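[agent] plan:
  1. take the single chain provided in the ticket
  2. run structure prediction with default settings
  3. attach structure tokens to the ticket
  4. add a short note for the reviewer (M.T.)
[agent] executing step 1
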Amino acid sequence: MRTWFITGASRGFGTLIAEHALRAGDAVIATARKPQDITDRLGTHPNLLAVRLDVTSEEESHQAVAEGIKRFGRIDVVINNAGFGVLGAVEETSASETERLFATNVFGVLNVTRAVLPHMRRQRSGHIVNISSI
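[agent] step 2 finished; step 3 output follows
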């Protein structure tokens, strides 16, 4: 059994990956800003842990990883899936929109990766998959 840590698991690819992993018998730490959205979509399952995570918070990233490790003992696969896009020409995109985009899509990935790498190094194994939009 592998343990998956999936960001942005309340919809889209995050939900689909979580569903697939659960069907395969794996454990899933599914994260979202609103964990209730995860349980609304995936229901309850003994191998599912829905955890609050805003990836822009380094502290929440460490807390979510710690909760997952406490429950399942390890994390084997991280899917950095949380993210969003901004449509518009460069001159039409505000500085605050751009900062929010980078906070989630770039620094959020780094926050989660920094939180999980020490555990993977101790295990001497693990995979990190970063998903981005077109």
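[agent] step 4 note for reviewer: Strands lie at 3-6, 27-32, 48-52, 77-80, 127-130.
[agent] ticket updated
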